[in-house]
Structures are given as structure tokens and as C-alpha cells.
Amino acid sequence: MEHSFRITPATLDVMEAFLAASGELHGFAVAKAAARPTGSVYPILARMEQAGWLESRWETGHPDEGRPRRRFYSLTKDGAAASRAVVLERRGQLAPTRSRGRLRPALRLTSRWGGAW
């Protein structure tokens, strides 16, 4: 499958977070579900959106006092199909499991030297 951006382990975690979600997610929720720092997640969201894999919208209501408006993201139809294909290709399975309310990424293959493929 061809992509217009680099697919890193963090990108795969973000894709899995969206595939496991039942709707749109704000950026911090993506970071939490992917177990990645926001400094890694927001650039990935921007790349995926630029590639047409995600669409976003700003929160329209007034947020709680002291909290900025959130930006919500959701996979496009093409983005969902592409994400599913990439995760299957790279990790061999889709279904993350829940453990204590947090998503746990699917099994990852590692080389005999301990590095992820």
C-alpha cells in the first residue's frame, strides 16, 4: 500500500486508536488511547489529515472554564480502509484489547535482536 507519509510505530498506534474508536476523538484522547505523548501525536494527526485520511472540526460549544476548545478528528472512509490495511500489513492483526479501561495495542512482531519490525 502506498502512503504519502512515513508510517512509524507511533503512527500505527494512532491508527489503531481510531480503528478502535466508535466515533470522533479529540487530540488528547487519541494520545491517551495510543499511549503516546501529545508532542508525537499532533504531528501525526496533521500528516494524516493532509493526506486525506482524517478530517477534523473544532468544538462549537463553549468549553469548560480554563479549557481551550478541542479539535475533533475522525477517519475518512478512505482513511479507515487505508489504516486498516496498513495496521494489518505491519502488525498482522487489528483488534486491540481493553485492559483496565485503556487500549492495549495488538501483538507486535520483534526481530531476534529485540527491535520491532
Would you summarize the structure shown here?
This protein is α+β, with helices and mostly antiparallel strands and 117 residues long. The longest helix is centred in the last third of the chain and has 15 residues.
Please render the helix and strand layout as text.
Blueprint: H1 9-20, E1 25-26, H2 27-34, H3 38-50, E2 54-58, E3 71-75, H4 77-91, E4 97-99, E5 102-104
Antiparallel strand pairs: 1-3, 2-3, 4-5
Notes on the structure:
A hairpin with a 2-residue loop joins β4 and β5. The strands form two sheets. The protein has a three-stranded antiparallel sheet with strand order 1-3-2. A two-stranded antiparallel ribbon has the order 4-5. It is α+β, with helices and mostly antiparallel strands. Helix content is 41%, strand content 15%. α1 crosses α2 and α1 packs across α4.
- Mean of residue pLDDT values: 83
**Percent range for β-strand residues:** 15-25%
- Biggest sheet strand order reads 1-3-2
Provide the structure class.
Answer: alpha+beta
Low-pLDDT parts are: 96-117
Structure summary, number of beta strands: 5
Task: Return the string of H and E elements.
Answer: HEHHEEHEE
Distance between the termini: 17 Å
Q: What is the overall silhouette? A: globular
Largest sheet: 3 strands, antiparallel
In DSSP terms, counting alpha (H) and pi (I) runs of 4 or more, how many helices? 4
Q: Gyration radius, to the nearest Å?
A: 15 Å
Please bin the fraction of helical residues.
40-55%
